[in-house]
Amino acid sequence: MADDESRQATFGAGGELSERDPDADGANDFGEPKEADETDGGFNRYAVSSLLQKAVRRSDEEVAAWAAWELARSGFAWNLWDRLHLYVVEDLRAGQEVALLVERYEELATERWEPAEWRGRICAVHAALACARATSSRESPNADEFFRNAAEARAEAHERGEEPSIDFPVGEFEPGGEYDVAFDKHTGEGSRLGRGGEFFKTHGARVGPEGEDDQSARWQRLNMALHEVDFSEEQIEHAIDPVDSDEKWEEPSFEDERGSDDP
């Protein structure tokens, strides 16, 4: 756990390479020669990059905009864009469309224009503002850390011949268990159980809890009517019914259900 966290969070010695745009000014705002990792304003670029991430995480638009601008104008645009791409997966809620915006802003700033000139800088500001305005969340790194910790605890318990105190969300993942529906014709276990097209269409292709829209439900109903399996009306209705929001993996069995393969 510590190794992964240090790789993502450590800057400076032993971290990322010190590299400034060769065309960047060699003096800071005070006319003094800049150090290898110094910005035009006289700040350490690792600290500014860290501030940018914290500003995005805390939705502080002004600070995020300044930090991005400072890195871009100082010849560290490559550092800025590299970090922003990390932030959209590390510090924002999944599904935020800003991830695509950041890529587009980078393309404009680095391929169409020069990163440190005014158009490149306003692209940096735009990207930082978009990130800061998006919904912040640490869900992905929190999930990664939990899954890694659970894997370690699980392995240690296995070595001791004990049940783990912390386990993966699926627990005992096997046919007949809570996630039985996963073992359909696309898996070896499901194939051995004779679960073919009938099982998959009735149970494995369901969505929810919002369910299918009317057009998709109509297509599924027609597909099942045209299928080589003679589906019952009960099976067809179940296939297009929304998954229960409280019991997402609960599946009934049908008396006439049998194994079959799609053509």
Low-confidence stretches: 1-18, 258-263
Strand content: under 5%
Question: How many structural domains does the protein architecture include?
Answer: 2
Q: Structural class of the helices, strands and pairings? A: mainly alpha
- Please count the beta strands (DSSP E, at least 2 residues each): 0
* Overall pLDDT score: 84
**Amount of helix:** 40-55%
What is the N-to-C order of secondary-structure elements (H for helix, E for strand)? HHHHHHHHHHH
Spatial separation of the terminal alpha carbons = 47 Å
Query: How would the global form be characterised?
Result: elongated
How many individual helices?
Answer: 11
Short summary:
This protein is mainly alpha-helical.
List key phrases describing it:
263 residues, 11 helices, mainly alpha, single chain
Structure description:
The protein has 11 helices and no strands. It is mostly helical. It folds into 2 domains: 2-133, no CATH class; 173-263, no CATH class. The radius of gyration is 27 Å and the shape is elongated.
Q: SSE layout and pairings?
A:
Elements lengths: L1 H8 L35 H13 L3 H13 L3 H14 L7 H15 L5 H16 L5 H22 L27 H5 L4 H8 L9 H13 L6 H8 L23
Helix pairs in contact: 2-3, 2-4, 2-6, 3-4, 3-6, 4-5, 4-6, 5-6, 9-11, 10-11
